[in-house]
């Protein structure tokens, strides 16, 4: 199977799959697995990347997105230009509130005010947001775990939101018409650990995924082969 990693658009082939050091032929939703990929350096992958099948609506980098945001606890007012950190799936990236489109009733969704200037605690609004760095998100209706987020500021959660619409960037192409993907020198395999899309915060350690929402795309949580070998050696000498 050939997969691509968004937002970098790197492409690679899955060579093997394993779960708890046991080889698998395939993995299903909810499985916490590792798989080996070829010709990609560990430096080219980051937490928050999304892996998807290149033949089935592959994930792409997000240019802007519209979200319904509910302000939970903010000491002041939030206006256009506010740029807090968003925790969305395993991504932890600052996003700017580019435009406050409309203030809505948080329960019914009915429009209360067009183009509000500010938001305060307890209010909800449709907001156009722009990531400060390459990021991959999806509409909540299509992929729930990639479409909900928490807004973090001053070391606390100040708002939460769900993504209603996404504008994606065009995939950069080389002369051959294929997505740009720089191959690592030496062609060595890189071991990566992936988890199905869940609502886990990026700071939390991996836990039981049996009761968490799942989808059909993957989030990157890197696990280096060297660390695995060191752990195995420690167990063997214990």
UniProtKB/TrEMBL annotation:
User: Region labeled Disordered — which residues?
Assistant: 203-238
**What range(s) does the Translation elongation factor EFTu-like domain occupy?**
9-50
Coiled coil ranges (UniProt) are none
The alphabetical list of record keywords is: Elongation factor, GTP-binding, Nucleotide-binding, Protein biosynthesis
Q: Could you tell me which InterPro entries the record lists for this protein? A: EFTu-like_2 (IPR004161), GTP-eEF1A_C (IPR054696), Transl_B-barrel_sf (IPR009000), Transl_elong_EF1A/Init_IF2_C (IPR009001)
Q: Where is the composition biased (Basic and acidic residues)?
A: 229-238
Q: List, alphabetically, the Pfam families matched.
A: GTP-eEF1A_C, GTP_EFTU_D2
Q: Which GO terms describe its molecular function?
A: GTP binding; translation elongation factor activity
Q: Which residues form the GTP-eEF1A C-terminal domain?
A: 65-164
Q: Which domain of life is it from?
A: Eukaryota
Q: Which family does it belong to?
A: Belongs to the TRAFAC class translation factor GTPase superfamily. Classic translation factor GTPase family. EF-Tu/EF-1A subfamily.
List the protein's name: Elongation factor 1-alpha
């Amino acid at each position: 199977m050939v997969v691509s990693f968004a937002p970098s658009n790197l492409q690679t082939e899955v060579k093997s799959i394993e779960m708890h050091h046991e080889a698998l032929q395939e993995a299903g939703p909810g499985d916490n697995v590792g798989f080996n990929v070829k010709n990609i350096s560990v430096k080219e992958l980051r937490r928050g990347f999304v892996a998807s099948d290149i033949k089935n609506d592959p994930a792409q980098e997000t240019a802007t997105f519209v979200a319904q945001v509910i302000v939970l606890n903010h000491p002041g007012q939030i206006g256009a230009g506010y740029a807090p950190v968003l925790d969305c799936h395993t991504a932890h990236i600052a996003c700017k509130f580019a435009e406050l489109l409309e203030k809505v009733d948080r329960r019914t969704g009915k429009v209360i005010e067009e183009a509000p200037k500010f938001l305060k605690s307890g209010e909800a609004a449709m907001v156009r947001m722009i990531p400060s760095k390459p990021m991959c998100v999806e509409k909540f209706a299509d992929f729930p775990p990639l479409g909900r987020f928490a807004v973090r500021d001053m070391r606390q959660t100040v708002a939460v939101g769900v993504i209603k619409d996404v504008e994606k960037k065009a995939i950069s192409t080389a002369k051959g018409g294929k997505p740009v993907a720089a191959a690592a020198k030496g062609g060595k395999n890189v071991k990566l650990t992936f988890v199905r899309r869940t609502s886990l915060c990026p700071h939390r350690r991996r836990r039981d995924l049996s009761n968490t929402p799942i989808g059909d795309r993957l989030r990157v949580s890197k696990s280096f082969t060297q660390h695995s070998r060191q752990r195995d050696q420690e167990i063997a000498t214990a």
